[in-house]
């Protein structure tokens, strides 16, 4: 089966935090063992290339955008394709060297993890790594090396600038019209597309609360106009809670404008945030039974979102049945004007140590997953859903007949595969719901720099015990999904009511000055209601 | 009120007088940063980021983008200057310098108690007079190679080494002349600038045709063909699956795959139509066939085409569709139904060149190429960027000169002549506005003065020499940057664009006036907030 490629785009700092974990997770699942080939077709998201020195490269098929000063030690071009220069050539071939004035910014120090990554085995002791303290930007825990195309730095705005913050949808929208994006960036998209033999489409992660909402939305519109392929978008909100301020309204409005726009131009989108509310503040963080994480650390929260993305996307990245997986996924969920879906995660999928799947499912109480979509609790009923389960081995399905005992009395005992049993379970527990289930044998590999967020009752294979075991977790089974169901109407409703608090845009100076009209605000609010109505059930 | 919204919100609370002082100091500050850039002896600035990214530029516009301009007034000036560049492609540095100087001069008078309103009224009188002087200095030119070489060279030599500038001058002039069609203003987009990271900048060339940064995607396709029909189209030749049918409808994945295979036939028929035309036109002749498609072409389609020796490129740039039409003739097709020979373009030679990961396709020997490509070469990204900026400036200088049908003497000659004329004119101006005219006359001299300083000469000495020489000769003179003496710009072939100078004069006056009238603007703004 030929590879069906997907191009990934990441817009904004938090999006890049998520992306970084995601690419790290993917590298940790590479299999270098020919006898045990991976079930994942890594060519879907990676490209093979060659450096000028004829070395083969395998780099993410990725374009990312961030602001000046946000990429730490990374250079825009990266160092994969050029010889490492010991000292910089501080001259120009084009001008008299006496007449050159050099301004050098202080050298950016590399985080300890990066230092360890780059040094050879002979270079002495590893530096002490403490991610929670070391990580300030996503580049501080980035494992893969990038193609020179990948990193795009916005010159007009500086990271975390207080004087000229990049905090308005329209700033991003205007930025899209500059040469850097109209020419360079669009041309990079084109160059990636040109390399693809059977491109399926695009996956876009974009910050929804700042100017990247506008930049990403404009790009999505461009992708739709220019390529007409499936676009799956994830507008994201970081999980930090700040003091109440006017800025909350900015974020709400950016998010509203973002959903309005991408709802029109992408195939499907799923908002992500570890906070329960998302707006006007992230709110209390979502709870997972066996995890402890710090919702104020982007490094932590983004790893959960990345885990969900890595798992959900397996549907269109697996080697089997790949022909039009992304368009099918979108088509399954975006019917009837339903452009948004909720994302769920079960991490780890709760396999009790020593038990089989049949018993685990039978004994399970409460929802099987946690929602990662703000202001949206996912119901099991009346939904269209696409789920991916990874890491339950066939041997954990049930006992053979002579050991089965009570298991044999359960209806599910007749199921002969994980896929079959899980499908049966979902059919029984989700009312009026259509489920597409993808099932992979291999679990999620847990490896540095994935944060250590597992409670101490988790075994190294991801099973859980009622008591502490103190093992280093090496892999975990995961269930994640996209759900299109009635609960999305609550999400739109809640965003609508928050955005409706903005009575007049004249208070929000940045918006007014950059061209938002009062009419557009009203239109945006109306559109949110239209999206909401698409989820309402008129048959009851 | 548009002007106030450009200011920092905090500024609303600054008292008006303070706001004025702030504006003046900001204007001076940004002038200090840019001063050393001006002219052919200006300083190149190299910025090395903390991670080692290098940016190098002498272009005021680029610098303004690179510097983080935090001060609202400074960023207002910066934005105005970049707007200047967007319109004419040149004159950013001069704009910043003249605004700064107008503010400095104004400061002297205001501190003596003059009302800013008097100054700005004087500025307006002076502006009108300066435009008159500028018009009188216009030198008509013909849009020919001879007529355009000097103005192009002047522009390029302010951005790159003279030896390289002289080589690129010809490349740029030839490019613009090639794309010009019967007296119409040239569309510079029809000069494609293609980058190639390779060897030295001196290898930069003009290709009379189109160069694309991609090639055929099939190993069996010819790498070089002659006498080629060129089909440019925007037709998908790849299997695409719409989102109409959801995956739920299929019982098994295998069943799904089968249905998809059926959908491919549709694409195959398109390819067959192209092949039919190719067979009709080329088989049995020495002609060949090239497809350049804006949409995708998948491997099965490529296979079919390769068997027929057809060269096929996919995902061409949208703009190249138009360029190809201009270079080769033919038109971009949105359908392959009813294709006929007249739809096709023609090129004498199409070949591929591979450099690292990138393939380049050259489409050359076109009959009358009205779209061309400048192939920029340089050893690294920042050199190429620098070269590209210079070439862009050069192209726009040529185009401006064609549109103006004129040039004006450079090397500070316009500013010097205008300054002299203003000193004479101010005698006729009554009232305190006269002081504004005087300030303006002084401020314009910042250009020749800075050119002198940047060339290592004393600004006072040079100005005196130029003024004397100009009085003696009774005509406009400029500064010789190698001797510090006066020269006749026409003799030395130093010309600037008329439209650029005009823009500089107009926008500097408006911006400086706005900055000076900040208190009035603010009061108006405040009352409108209250009312
Ligand atoms: N050979 C020369 N001798 C003297 N003066 C020159 C010469 N060439 C150009 N100049 C002068 O240099 C000035 C232009 O300098 P420069 O191009 O560096 O700045 P700019 O056009 O104001 O801004 P930008 O950075 O946008 O190009 C003009 O006043 C021009 O007349
Ligand atoms: Mg210039």
Automatic annotation (TrEMBL), chain A:
Domain (Misato Segment II tubulin-like) ranges: 4-119
GO cellular component: mitochondrion
Pfam families tied to this protein: Misat_Tub_SegII, Tubulin_3
Compartments where located: Mitochondrion
Chief localization: mitochondrion
Keywords, in A-Z order: Mitochondrion
Record has Ion transport as a keyword: no
Domain DML1/Misato tubulin: 133-316
Record carries keyword Transit peptide: no
GO biological process: mitochondrion organization
InterPro entries found in the cross-reference section: DML1/Misato, DML1/Misato_tubulin, Misato_II_tubulin-like, Tubulin/FtsZ_GTPase_sf
Family listed: Belongs to the misato family.
Protein name, UniProt field: Protein misato isoform X1
Automatic annotation (TrEMBL), chain B:
UniProt protein name: T-complex protein 1 subunit zeta
Cellular localisation: Cytoplasm
InterPro entries to which the protein is assigned, alphabetical: Chap_CCT_zeta (IPR012722), Chaperone_TCP-1 (IPR017998), Chaperonin_TCP-1_CS (IPR002194), Cpn60/GroEL/TCP-1 (IPR002423), GroEL-like_apical_dom_sf (IPR027409), GROEL-like_equatorial_sf (IPR027413), TCP-1-like_intermed_sf (IPR027410), TCP-1_chaperonin (IPR053374)
GO CC annotation terms, alphabetical: cytoplasm
Family: Belongs to the TCP-1 chaperonin family.
Keywords, alphabetical: ATP-binding, Chaperone, Cytoplasm, Nucleotide-binding
Molecular function terms, GO-annotated: ATP binding; ATP hydrolysis activity; ATP-dependent protein folding chaperone; unfolded protein binding
Keyword Nucleotide-binding attached: yes
Domain of life: Eukaryota
Predominant localisation class: cytoplasm
UniProt xrefs under PROSITE patterns: TCP1_1, TCP1_2, TCP1_3
């Amino acid at each position: 089966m030929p590879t069906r490629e997907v191009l990934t785009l990441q817009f904004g700092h938090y999006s890049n935090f998520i992306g970084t974990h995601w690419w790290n997770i993917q590298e940790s699942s590479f299999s270098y063992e020919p006898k045990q080939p991976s079930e994942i077709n890594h060519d879907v998201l990676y490209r093979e290339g060659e450096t000028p020195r004829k070395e083969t490269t395998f780099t993410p098929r990725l374009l990312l955008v961030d602001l000046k000063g946000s990429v730490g030690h990374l250079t825009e071009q990266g160092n994969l394709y050029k010889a490492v220069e010991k000292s910089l050539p501080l001259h120009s071939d084009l001008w008299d060297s006496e007449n050159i004035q050099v301004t050098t910014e202080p050298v950016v120090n590399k985080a300890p993890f990066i230092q360890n990554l780059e040094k050879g085995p002979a270079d002495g002791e590893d530096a002490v790594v403490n991610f929670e303290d070391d990580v300030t930007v996503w580049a501080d825990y980035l494992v893969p090396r990038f193609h020179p195309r990948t990193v795009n730095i916005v010159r007009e705005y500086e990271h975390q600038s207080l004087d000229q913050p990049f905090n308005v949808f329209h700033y991003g929208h205007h930025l899209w019209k500059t040469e850097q994006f109209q020419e360079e960036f669009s041309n990079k998209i084109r160059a990636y597309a040109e390399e693809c033999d059977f491109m399926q489409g695009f996956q876009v992660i974009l910050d929804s609360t700042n100017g990247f909402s506008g930049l990403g939305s404009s790009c999505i519109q461009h992708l739709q106009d220019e390529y007409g392929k499936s676009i799956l978008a994830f507008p994201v909100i970081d999980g930090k809670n700040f003091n109440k301020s006017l800025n909350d309204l900015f974020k709400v409005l950016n998010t509203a404008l973002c959903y309005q726009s991408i709802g029109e131009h992408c195939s499907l989108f799923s908002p992500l945030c570890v906070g329960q509310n998302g707006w006007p503040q992230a709110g209390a963080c979502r709870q997972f039974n066996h995890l402890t994480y710090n919702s104020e650390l982007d490094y932590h929260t983004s790893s959960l979102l990345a885990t969900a993305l890595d798992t959900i996307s397996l549907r269109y990245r697996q080697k089997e049945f790949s022909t039009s997986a992304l368009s099918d996924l979108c088509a399954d969920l975006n019917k009837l004007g339903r452009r948004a879906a909720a994302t769920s995660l079960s991490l780890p999928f709760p396999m009790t140590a020593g038990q089989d799947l049949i018993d685990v499912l039978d004994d399970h109480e409460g929802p099987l997953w946690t929602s990662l979509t703000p202001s949206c609790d996912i119901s099991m009923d009346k939904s269209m859903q696409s789920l991916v389960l990874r890491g339950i081995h066939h041997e954990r399905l049930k006992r053979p007949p002579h050991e089965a005992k009570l298991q044999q009395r359960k209806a599910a005992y007749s199921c002969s595969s994980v896929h079959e049993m899980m499908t049966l379970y979902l059919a029984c527990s989700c009312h009026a719901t259509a489920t597409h289930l993808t099932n992979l044998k291999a679990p999620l590999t847990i490896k540095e720099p994935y944060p250590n967020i597992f409670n101490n009752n988790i075994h190294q294979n991801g099973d859980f015990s009622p008591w502490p075991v103190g093992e280093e977790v090496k892999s975990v089974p995961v269930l994640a999904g996209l759900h299109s169901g009635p609960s999305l109407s609550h999400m739109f409703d809640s965003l609508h009511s928050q955005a409706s608090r903005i009575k007049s845009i004249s208070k929000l100076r940045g918006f007014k000055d950059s061209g938002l009209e009062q009419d557009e605000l009203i239109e945006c609010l109306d559109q949110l209601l239209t999206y909401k109505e698409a989820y309402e059930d008129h048959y009851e | 009120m548009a002007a106030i919204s450009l200011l920092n919100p905090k500024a609303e609370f600054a008292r008006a007088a303070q706001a004025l002082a702030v504006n003046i100091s900001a204007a001076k500050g940004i002038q200090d940063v840019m001063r050393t850039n001006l002219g052919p002896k200006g300083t190149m600035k190299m910025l090395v980021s903390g991670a080692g990214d290098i940016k190098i530029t002498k272009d005021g516009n680029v610098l303004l983008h690179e510097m983080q301009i935090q001060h609202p007034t400074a960023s207002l000036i910066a934005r105005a200057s970049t707007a200047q560049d967007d319109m004419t492609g040149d004159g950013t540095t001069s704009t910043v310098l003249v605004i700064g100087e107008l503010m400095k001069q104004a400061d002297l008078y205001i501190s003596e108690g003059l009302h800013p309103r008097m100054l700005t009224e004087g500025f307006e009188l002076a502006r009108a007079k300066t435009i008159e002087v500028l018009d009188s200095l216009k030198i008509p030119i013909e849009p020919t190679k001879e007529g355009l070489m000097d103005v192009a060279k002047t522009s390029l030599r302010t951005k790159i080494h003279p030896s390289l500038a002289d080589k690129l001058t010809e490349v740029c002039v030839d490019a613009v002349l090639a794309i010009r069609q019967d007296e119409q203003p040239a569309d510079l987009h029809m000069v494609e600038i293609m980058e190639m990271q390779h060897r030295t900048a001196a290898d930069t060339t003009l290709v009379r045709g189109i160069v694309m940064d991609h090639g055929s995607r099939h190993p069996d396709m010819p790498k070089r063909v002659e006498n080629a029909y060129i089909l440019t189209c925007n037709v998908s030749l790849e299997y695409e699956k719409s989102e109409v049918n959801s995956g739920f409808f299929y019982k098994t994945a295998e069943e799904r795959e089968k249905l998809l295979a059926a959908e491919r036939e549709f694409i195959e028929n398109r390819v067959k139509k192209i092949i039919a035309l190719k067979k009709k036109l080329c088989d049995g002749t020495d002609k060949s066939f090239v497809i350049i498609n804006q949409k995708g072409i998948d491997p099965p389609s490529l296979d079919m085409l390769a068997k027929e020796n057809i060269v096929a490129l996919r995902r061409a740039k949208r703009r190249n569709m138009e360029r190809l039409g201009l270079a080769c003739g033919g038109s971009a097709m949105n359908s392959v139904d009813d294709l006929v020979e007249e739809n096709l373009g023609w090129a004498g030679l199409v070949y591929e060149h591979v450099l690292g990961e990138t393939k380049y396709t050259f489409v050359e020997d076109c009959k009358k190429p009205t779209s061309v490509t400048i192939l920029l070469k340089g050893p690294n990204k920042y050199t190429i960027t620098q070269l590209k900026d210079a070439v862009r400036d050069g192209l726009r200088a040529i185009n401006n000169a064609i549109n103006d049908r004129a040039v004006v003497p450079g090397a500070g000659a316009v500013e010097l002549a205008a300054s002299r004329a203003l000193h004479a004119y101010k005698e006729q101006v009554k009232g305190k506005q006269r002081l504004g005219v005087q300030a303006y006359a002084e401020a314009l001299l910042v250009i020749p003065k800075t050119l002198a300083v940047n060339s290592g000469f004393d600004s006072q000495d040079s100005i005196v020499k130029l003024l004397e020489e100009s009085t003696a000769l009774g005509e406009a003179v400029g500064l010789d940057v190698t001797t510090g003496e006066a020269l006749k710009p026409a003799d030395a072939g130093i010309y600037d664009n008329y439209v650029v100078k005009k823009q500089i004069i107009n926008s500097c006056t408006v911006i400086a006036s706005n900055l000076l009238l900040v208190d009035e603007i603010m009061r108006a703004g405040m009352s409108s907030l209250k009312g």
